[in-house]
């Protein structure tokens, strides 16, 4: 391993001088900026989220007391403004409704609410194109419910103040508790913010891991097919070459993350207060440190796995075929992210945060959302470190044997056989 | 000294190398000669431990291959591969450092080699900017920059212009003069003829013939002499040491009778004609190879007949 530093230095320089790397390093902070500022911007400009199409209301004018229709529209208008939507009153006739339905179908209207005579008892109908816009559904339901309640109270002759005090809902405040007796004001906003941050961190780890993994896989295949490897192996051992490649690229990745994290800190500590914005609490130095830790572990694990695949692959196409099982393990946690966010301590979350191929991402989510027990964190990191070493050693072995075998297309079974050679 | 003993390498169904043995000695250029696909590169890669032989042993100074030995060996593979995005000088320094040189030393040596190959102007350029021939010279430098004791050149001259070929040839001869063990492979017989002390002719993974080049030629040679002279040479055909004479417009070609040397003929000529050129005609390596292939093909078909008879 005497020549390892020279190989690391060479591979690092090669990577750091790569145009794609430089561009990503420079653009990364803008990505982070977008991630940090986007949730805030979105809450200020709800149109960006909802699309801002108006909803149409066709309500029976004789539904109750005088001026009820006007009050209903006003209630809808104030409720919908938070989503950046306008309200369009419609006459309750078949022609107007049929036309509105067409406009909903073509996307000009976000929804149509039809409230025929006696709707408070017989029910109203909400027409939407997708039926999946929970926010829209919730708002409409809230307005309609409140309005129906009011009109029932009015009709019943009960003292309105008494009635309202009877049906008043309870204030439920959310407080986030962690193991260390630390209390944090929660609430829907904080939850969304944490979710956003967790998502962005996970995406960052996922993207960079995939990017560097594939880069290393390609680099190994190219070296193998271009026969550069013959010159390399006439000077160094396969293990030195493999470890040097992985460490050199890893160092470049760390440099990149270093740039990003310091910029994120500068942004959230200096720039955002200047602009009068609160920095998301999830972008705390502690969380950024975890981001780097899990990136490093994920990177080394997947870089080693990809290197092993590259060593077994015949060409880049073959590498792509061999790589899909590895990719699945990267994607699974991404698909299940909402489950980890809502239940960070469920057996599934705990299990996947200890299994090495999913653990960097799942444990990162858990660390951001809640505070996992220390033993789980240590186990997770320990398992990862051992897996990384094993994968890198296996990669070196497969590399060596793959070249010795020369020109044979390897299956997974064959790769396992190769591991047993000598 | 490099000794290769009965190595065998089989790819899938093809026996690429089938029991080759030879020795390459210090201060000597050993040629591994044969047509494309004869197993030359496979043999060299086995020596380099890039691929493992199925059978047989390869020893360097009596010892089996080890990682530490890599620093004493220089290797120019047949398929050239240098990272195209790296500067020439950085590439050479890296190769030197991987062979155990310290960076400053590697840089100094690389620069003096570049100068010698008239590539100094290119040292700051990336490899991709080089022509094929230049890249090949750079790779050659990479294989000798650490002053190895054993050098293996796989088709070192292919794709080089005549001037570059001569530069490389001089460098190889210098290595020989410095007492290095030089092993090189080629399918171009003329190159082998110019360089090699000893050769191994390979065909289909098997040895056709091996030994010192000069000895091989005379033992397989048709002994004829080309004589260019002024005067009446009609007596030559009647000399006892001469078997027959072919008369060309400007010279005659006399074939020597068995048991008679060229010196005998030369002394018979002196005083009778004025000799302008007296040249012993050896068969070219090319002719030698062709005749050997033909005779082994005959033997091969004989084997096949025999096998058929057994079956």
Summarize the structure.
The complex is a heterodimer of chains A (422) and B (311). Chain A has 422 residues and is mainly alpha-helical.
List the helices and strands and how they pair.
The complex is a heterodimer of chains A (422) and B (311).
Chain A: H1 4-16, H2 19-44, H3 46-50, E1 55-59, H4 68-81, E2 87-90, H5 94-105, E3 111-115, H6 119-122, E4 125-128, H7 134-156, H8 160-167, E5 175-177, E6 183-185, H9 188-225, H10 228-233, H11 238-274, H12 285-312, H13 316-335, H14 337-342, H15 347-352, H16 359-369, H17 374-405, H18 412-420
Parallel strand pairs in A: 1-2, 1-3
Antiparallel strand pairs in A: 3-4, 5-6
Helix pairs in contact in A: 1-11, 2-9, 2-11, 4-7, 9-12, 9-13, 9-16, 11-12, 11-17, 12-13, 12-16, 12-17
Chain B: E1 2-11, E2 14-24, E3 28-33, H1 40-47, E4 55-60, E5 63-64, E6 73-76, H2 88-98, H3 103-116, H4 132-144, E7 150-154, H5 162-177, E8 181-186, H6 189-195, E9 198-203, E10 206-212, H7 213-220, E11 224-230, E12 242-247, E13 252-256, H8 262-269, E14 274-281, H9 285-310
Parallel strand pairs in B: 3-8, 3-9, 6-7, 7-8
Antiparallel strand pairs in B: 1-2, 1-4, 4-5, 9-10, 11-13, 11-14, 12-13
């Amino acid at each position: 391993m005497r020549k390892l530093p020279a190989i690391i230095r060479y591979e690092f320089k090669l990577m750091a001088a790569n145009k794609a790397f430089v561009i990503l390093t420079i653009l990364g902070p803008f990505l982070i900026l977008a991630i940090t500022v986007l949730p805030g911007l979105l809450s200020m400009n709800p149109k960006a989220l909802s699309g801002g199409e108006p909803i149409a209301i066709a309500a029976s004018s004789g539904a109750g007391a005088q001026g009820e229709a006007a009050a209903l529209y006003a209630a809808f208008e104030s409720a919908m403004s938070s989503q950046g939507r306008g309200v369009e009153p419609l006459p309750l006739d078949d022609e107007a409704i049929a036309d509105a339905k067409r406009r909903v179908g073509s996307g000009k209207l976000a929804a149509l609410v039809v409230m025929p005579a006696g709707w408070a008892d017989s029910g109203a109908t909400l027409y939407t194109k997708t039926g999946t816009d929970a926010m829209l559904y919730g708002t409409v339901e809230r307005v309609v419910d409140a309005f129906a309640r009011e009109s029932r109270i009015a009709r019943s002759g009960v003292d309105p103040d008494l009635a309202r005090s009877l049906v008043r809902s309870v204030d439920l405040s959310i407080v986030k508790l962690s193991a260390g007796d630390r209390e944090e004001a929660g609430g829907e906003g904080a939850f969304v913010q944490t979710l956003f941050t967790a998502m962005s961190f996970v995406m960052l780890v996922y993207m960079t891991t995939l990017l560097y993994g594939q880069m290393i896989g390609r680099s190994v295949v190219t070296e193998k097919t271009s026969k550069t490897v013959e010159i390399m192996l006439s000077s160094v051992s396969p293990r030195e070459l493999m470890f040097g490649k992985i460490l050199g690229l890893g160092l470049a990745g760390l440099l990149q993350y270093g740039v990003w994290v310091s910029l994120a800190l500068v942004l959230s500590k200096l720039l955002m207060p200047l602009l009068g914005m609160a920095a998301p609490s999830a972008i705390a130095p502690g969380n950024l440190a975890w981001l780097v830790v899990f990136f490093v572990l994920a990177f080394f694990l997947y870089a080693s796995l990809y290197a092993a695949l590259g060593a077994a692959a015949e060409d880049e196409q073959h590498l792509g075929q061999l790589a899909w099982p590895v990719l699945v393990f990267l994607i699974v946690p991404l698909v299940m992210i909402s489950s980890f966010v809502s239940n960070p301590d469920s057996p599934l979350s705990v299990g996947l945060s200890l299994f090495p191929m999913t653990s960097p991402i799942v444990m990162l989510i858990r660390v951001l959302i809640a505070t996992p027990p220390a033993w789980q964190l240590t186990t997770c990191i320990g398992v990862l470190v051992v897996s990384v070493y094993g994968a890198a050693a296996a990669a070196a072995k497969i590399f060596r044997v793959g070249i010795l075998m020369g020109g044979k297309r390897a299956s997974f079974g064959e790769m396992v056989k190769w591991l047993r050679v000598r | 000294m490099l000794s290769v003993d009965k190595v065998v390498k089989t790819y899938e169904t093809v026996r690429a190398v089938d029991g080759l043995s030879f020795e390459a000695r210090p201060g000597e250029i050993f040629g591994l000669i044969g047509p494309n696909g004869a197993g030359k590169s496979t043999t060299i890669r086995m020596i380099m431990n890039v691929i493992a032989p199925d059978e047989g042993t390869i020893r360097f100074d009596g010892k089996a291959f080890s990682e530490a030995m890599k620093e004493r060996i220089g290797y120019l593979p047949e398929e050239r591969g240098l990272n195209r995005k790296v500067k020439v000088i950085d590439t050479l320094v890296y190769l030197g450092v991987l062979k155990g040189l310290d960076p400053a030393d590697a840089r100094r040596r690389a620069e003096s080699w570049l100068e010698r190959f008239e590539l100094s102007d290119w040292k700051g350029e990336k490899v991709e900017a080089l022509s094929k021939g230049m890249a090949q010279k750079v790779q050659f430098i990479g294989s000798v920059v650490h002053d190895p004791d054993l050098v293996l050149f796989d088709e070192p001259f292919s794709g080089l212009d005549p001037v570059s070929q001569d530069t490389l040839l001089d460098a190889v001869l210098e290595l020989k003069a410095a007492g290095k063990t030089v092993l090189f492979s080629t399918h171009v017989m003329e190159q082998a003829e110019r360089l090699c002390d000893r050769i191994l002719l390979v065909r289909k993974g098997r040895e056709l013939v091996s030994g010192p080049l000069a000895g091989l030629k005379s033992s397989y040679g048709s002994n004829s002499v080309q004589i260019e002279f002024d005067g009446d040479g009609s007596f030559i055909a009647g000399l006892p040491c001469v078997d027959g004479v072919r008369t060309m417009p400007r010279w005659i070609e006399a074939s020597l009778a068995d048991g008679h040397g060229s010196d005998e003929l030369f002394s018979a000529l002196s005083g009778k004609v004025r000799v302008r050129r007296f040249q012993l005609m050896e068969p070219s390596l090319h002719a030698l190879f062709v005749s050997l292939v033909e005779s082994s093909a005959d033997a091969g078909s004989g084997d096949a007949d025999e096998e058929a008879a057994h079956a």
